[in-house]
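As a warm-up, study this chain.
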Amino acid sequence: MTYLIDAWLDRRDPYLRILHRETGAVCALLKGETLEELREQGGLDLHDLESSEPQVLKELVRSLFLYSYAQALR
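Now compare it with the structure written out below.
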């Protein structure tokens, strides 16, 4: 499976979505306080979003999925 990261962080209401590349389905959504908390904890490095290295992006998607699921369990 392949995913796309759709991040709009410089808006008044920032959000980050992970989309399934083939279907466009939203697999994870982080926004508002949840997204800010992730950034403050160091779980989201903006430089990683700019990377073109597959391993860096793969690890970022994995981390975002784990964080998203952990938030859902709270």
